Amino acid sequence: MQEYMKNSNWVWIPSWNAKNKENPCIVCFRREVNLDAEAKKAKIRISADTRYKLYINGVLVETGPGRGDRQIWFYDTVSLLPYLKQGINVLAVRVLRYPQEPEAGNHGMFRTAVPGLYITGRIEDISGGIYDISTDESWKCRLDQSVSFYREEERFAPLVIHERAKGNAELCGWQGESYDDRDWESARPYIRKMVPEAVSPGNLNPRTIP
């Protein structure tokens, strides 16, 4: 059995509770980075359990990860350079977490007992400044309660991917620099032992399908 190391960079929302575990849920993560000069290098590795959408300054940049299983989990390598600017930049991620029980949502995606977002990487600007953007307590997070999922048909629903979404003024503009996230929670890194079924973060591998 492997352990989460303090700096494993797998994080999750601290207020996650037993009710959240029973239903598909979306958790939003964001981090602001103020670049003193134009970016010269910017690359990250990113993964999540179960699915993620990565936005930079409001632009959808990547979705993933590739489908894993009990023995292997995948990460994506993403260049952020085309989306960055001097000044304030916002990294935003929506993570869709499916319940561990397949009947509660999407038989087609494996998930571990451990929900989470994983990012490692940094930005280097032309003046030599370096900005670590790996997921840790500096990332903010919030549960998006404006989206819920329901069964396609009560007697046969192997996916449970239909969505009901409504407007949420509290999340309006959350992917942009003018958004106030002071009432969001600070993400919590995993520091406890992994349960036997979980592979992340102990067996991360590069995505094999483009």
Description:
The chain has 210 residues and is mainly beta. It is 2% helix and 42% strand. It has 1 helix and 15 strands, in the order βαββββββββββββββ. The strands form 3 sheets. Strands 1, 3, 6, 8, 9, 14 and 15 form a 7-stranded mixed sheet that branches. Strand 8 (116-125) and strand 9 form a beta hairpin. The longest helix is centred in the first third of the chain and has 4 residues, at 18-21.
State the gist of this model.
The protein is mainly β. 2% of the residues lie in helices and 42% in strands. Strands 1, 3, 6, 8, 9, 14 and 15 form a 7-stranded mixed β-sheet that branches. It has a 6-stranded antiparallel β-sheet with strand order 5-4-7-2-10-13, with no helix packed on it. Strands 11-12 form a two-stranded antiparallel sheet.
Which secondary structure elements does this structure contain, and how are they paired or packed?
Elements: E1 10-12, H1 18-21, E2 25-35, E3 39-49, E4 51-56, E5 59-64, E6 73-79, E7 87-97, E8 116-125, E9 130-132, E10 140-144, E11 147-150, E12 162-165, E13 185-186, E14 188-189, E15 204-206
Q: What are the key terms here?
A:
mainly beta
Binned strand content: 35-45%
Poorly predicted runs are 1-7, 193-198
What string, H for helix and E for strand, traces the elements in order? Answer: EHEEEEEEEEEEEEEE
Helix content: under 10%
- Intertermini distance: 31 Å
Shape: globular
Structural class: mainly beta
Give the biggest beta sheet.
Answer: 7 strands, mixed
- Spatial extent as radius of gyration: 17 Å
Tell how many strands the DSSP assignment holds: 15
Number of helices, counting only DSSP H or I runs of 4 residues or more: 1
What value does the average pLDDT take?
88
